[in-house]
Amino acid sequence: MSGLLLDADGTKIERLHFAPEGDFAVETIQDVEPTLEANKRLRNDNPSGMGSSRELQHVASIPPVVQLMWFQRYGIEAWNQDHMPAVIRLLNDPEWSLLRTNEGTI
User: Fold this and answer.
1) For residues 33 and 46, which has the higher predicted lDDT (pLDDT)?
2) What is the C-alpha separation between 32 and 64, in angstroms, rounded?
3) Contacts of 83 (CB under 8 A, 6+ apart)
4) Domain limits of the chain?
5) Residue 79: CB partners within 8 Å, gap ≥ 6?
6) SS3 assignment, position 17
7) 3-state secondary structure 36-99
8) What backbone phi and psi angles, to 5 degrees, belong to 70?
9) Which among 27, 59, 91, 100 has the fewest CB atoms less than 10 Å away?
10) 28 beta partners
11) pLDDT tens digits for 38-54?
């Protein structure tokens, strides 16, 4: 038996899988391609990522499913300010370069 939940913005699906003995698992699915394509466009259009006021710099967009993966694999909460050094380390890693919206290192 399984159930299906759709995220409020319609970008993420969570499937609930139930076993007869009462155990369950949650499977999270999200198409990250639109975010990765948007990141690529931002990187091409504005490689520095600096805003017009030069006060803020857009460095990455991290899809919720990737944030969940980081939490499950590494114990890193992308939304937790105390975990920012670890988030920056991951964003500077070539494996996660498609999440970056600018060039260089953070």
Assistant:
1) 33
2) 9
3) 76, 77
4) 1-30, 32-106
5) 67
6) strand
7) HHHHHHHHHHCCCCECCCCCCECCECCCHHHHHHHHHHHCCCCCCHHHHHHHHHHHHCHHHHHH
8) -60, -40
9) 27
10) 14
11) 999 998 987 777 767 77
Burial class (CB in 10 A: 0-12, 13-18, 19+), 60: buried
* pTM for this model (two decimals): 0.74
Contact status, residue 32 vs residue 65, Cβ threshold 8 Å: yes
**Residue 24 in this model has a pLDDT that exceeds 90:** no
Which residue carries 């060039």 as its tokens? Answer: 103
Residue type, position 102, single letter: N
Q: Determine the pLDDT at residue 10.
A: 60
Token code pair at residue 102: 């600018």
Residue count of the chain, please give it. 106
- Of 92, 103, 91, which Cα lies nearest the Cα of 67? 91
Token pair recorded at residue 26: 């949650």
Range 78-85 average pLDDT: 96
